[in-house]
Amino acid sequence: MTEVLKTAHFSTVRAWVDGWVISRNAPKPVREPWGLRVDVGLPGHVSRHIVAAPTPGILRHLTTTLTTPGTWLKLCAPADAVVPLLPTPWALKDREFMMTAPLPRTAPPEAPPGYTLAVTTRAGVTAARLLTAAGEVAARGQFAVAGRAAVVDQVETAAQHRRRGLGTVIMRTLSSAAASMGARTGILVATAEGQALYETLGWTLHTPMTAVVLAP
Fold first, then answer.
1. Residues 91 and 109 in one domain
2. Could you say which of 63, 83, 109, 128 has the lowest number of CB atoms within 10 Å?
3. Do 106 and 63 fall into the same domain?
4. Looking at the structure, do residues 125 and 171 belong to the same domain, yes or no?
5. Taking the model in full, what pTM does it have?
């Protein structure tokens, strides 16, 4: 990896972490020799260590010195490169994918028939929700701005409202709102299922992500 690409990669990962802590109301990240640490402080999610360039040495160090159950590692590497190096107490989670997209200024989309679109901003977090006539949340998502990037988070559609294009409306709403606030790049971490949707909307893979957690 050239120095220019390496710098861009680390900047993207750092922006994602900075936006994630705002979105989740978590403490600011702390620099570590191997990357960043966020002391989340939740049951089952005590802390997370984000490593933009994991090596076998770094992975061995983390998995042998971190002993608190509920500690997570977020590694910018494919699972097949991580699994052979994991000691038994560490559990592999579902595959994830860090993705990015340009955020040109566009008009926000209209809500589909039968739904109302609500957009609110509070404490640096902008949330978009599609509501039914009964006021139920059919789909939602949010973002936080970190520098020139908008970190999209917690995008979901209720089971009974899926396959109606609601996720697309939420994503386009968030992208439009983020661009209007000065963000020029979107960053998110997707599941394998979410990756398919985001690709249709112009998002591209930045790096595969592997999440592991120290089980009780």
1. no
2. 83
3. no
4. yes
5. 0.94
